[in-house]
Amino acid sequence: MVSFNKVYLMGNLTRDPELRYTSGGNPVCNLGLAVNHRYRTQNNELKEEVCFVTITVWGKQAENCNEYLSKGRAVFLEGRLQQRSWEAEDGQKRTRLEVVAENIQFLPRVAPGTQPNAAAGEHYQGDNPPPESVPPHDDIPF
Question: What's the CA gap between 125 and 56, in Å, rounded?
Answer without folding.
Answer: 14
